[in-house]
Amino acid sequence: MKTKVLLILLMFFTITSFSQTSRVSIEANFPITFGKNFIGENYGGIIDLGIKYRVSELKLVKLGASINGGLLKNSKMDNKILDIYVYSLQPRIFAEFNIESLSKLHPQIGLGYTLLIFDAKLNEMSSRFVGTNIDRTENGVNLNLGLSYDITSKLFLQAQYDFIKIGVNNDVPDTKYNANINILKFGLGIRI
Prior knowledge:
By secondary structure, this protein is mainly beta. It has helices at residues 2-17, 38-42, 176-179; strands spanning 24-34, 44-57, 61-73, 82-97, 105-122, 134-150, 155-166, 180-191. The chain is built from 3 helices and 8 strands, in the order H-E-H-E-E-E-E-E-E-H-E. Strands 1-2-3-4-5-6-7-8 form an 8-stranded antiparallel barrel. Strand 6 (134-150) and strand 7 form a beta hairpin. The chain starts with a helix and ends with a strand.
């Protein structure tokens, strides 16, 4: 099994090393929630995976589209009855800037939309209670700021900040605590 995985990885890196220009990149990030809001105070990050496609490459900027999918868990709150997972889906358009004097650094800005899918289930400790699972979806506008650093021509490190402004229902007060979400992401990416 280890040999097959190693062979597949070797083939993948060999194929990608011969490509002339990299328009596609794949990323794996660790999300960190923060701030005085319901996500920042109650959920911790597990993983965030993304893919970017650069549609147009100009001298100073690369324009493209991306999509990220993430997973958060209610690990910050002491909830012994429910296990709550938040799945995020974030399509966006982005601009990645090329600074000639700092050729390894690439600042970026993105604008998109975020879907947050809440999946709550009774955990094993609460099996004696009868209840329903709580599933709901929230959505809103997403502003993304990021910086990547090239380790090699294919491999890069990155840091991103997502500000998400979700819409609230009539039964939820429209406050910063309920509507503003902040997520930092640190990760590694590869251009293919």
